[in-house]
Amino acid sequence: MFRSRRYRVDNEQVVLLLTILLVFAVIVISSTVTFCASGVFIILMFALSAFLTRSHHQSLLHSAIPLNPVKMPQLAAEVEECSVKLQPGPVDVFVARQNHINAYTFGISSPKVLVIYAPMLNVMSADELRFIIGHEMGHVALGHTWLNTILGGMAGIPAPFGAAVLLYAVFRWWNRMCEFSSDRAGLLACGDLNAAVSAMVKLVAPNARSQVDFDKALAMIDAQDDSMSNRLAEVFQTHPMLIRRINKLRDYSRTQEYQYLQAGVNENVGKKERKVRTSAPISQDLRNSAEKPGEHQKPPEERWPWLKPKE
Predict the structure, then answer these.
(1) CA-to-CA distance for 237 and 15, rounded, in angstroms?
(2) For residue 305, what is the DSSP state?
(3) Pairing relation of β-strands 65-66 and 91-96?
(4) pTM given for the model
(5) Which ranges in the chain belong to alpha helices (H)?
(6) What is the largest CA-CA distance in the chain?
(7) 137, 189 in Cβ contact below 8 A?
(8) For the purposes of burial, counting CB atoms within 10 Å of the CB of 33, is it exposed (0-12), middle (13-18) or buried (19 or more)?
(9) Segment 184-209, tens digit of pLDDT
(10) Is the dihedral of CA 109, 172, 6, 1 positive or negative?
(11) Cα 121 to chain center, whole Å?
(12) Which letter does DSSP use for residue 235 in this model?
């Protein structure tokens, strides 16, 4: 079975190490009282995170729907394919009754939990949904899920204001690197750059169905990094601007490493099975988005000229 973590963004672990070193540097430079308080604070935050994770899991058992292969066969099939491709380890999947689209993972111990909001099933096509599921499984496979819990507590240790801001900013930097890595996992799961891009567009424009709708959403996304205020605000955000995510994923899809990894994960499910699965119609629990004949086969730069690299 092919299993690789080479899709991790190169600098992700460097930023992770920098975050940890900064935490300990702040503790060492601080007074003995702060040192003791920092240690106690980290332990308390870890305990609180474990408690909240367990409570959230129990809440899901009462309010969300555990993935049932009998009642949701196609969603179960997509989850299974992503799991076989990416090999993230044990993951429990729940469908939550919410009024907006989102998906996330949490958990410190195994199995981790993947939550998909129900409206996602009506908005995303099968390929797009595989990108979303693969993205979340990428977080699990690369250790982001439990590391985020621990580092979140470490980055919040008692410290002078300037040091606290620096720690928070570096921690968010690592968060954004994790998103780039998990986007690559999502691309490997769906195997289609068009689907990956359209899935990200639908996260901010879930009602987009026609090319006109997509053009409007893409124009809005394209303008994100034109504002200096947006660039500064991104420093303290957990997710990069969508324009950055799309451009980085597009560039990654052209590399030899991606081609090698994509061929490897495809072998996990078998070429024949994958061909049938991706071309099969979507039934009740997953609905295809409207798409013009032949449009899906075009490269993103032809389908959406906006994606062409700027001169």
Answers:
(1) 15
(2) G
(3) antiparallel
(4) 0.81
(5) 12-29, 32-63, 73-86, 119-123, 126-141, 144-154, 161-190, 193-204, 211-222, 228-234, 242-252, 256-269, 271-279, 300-303
(6) 68
(7) yes
(8) exposed
(9) 999 999 999 999 999 999 998 888 77
(10) positive
(11) 17
(12) T
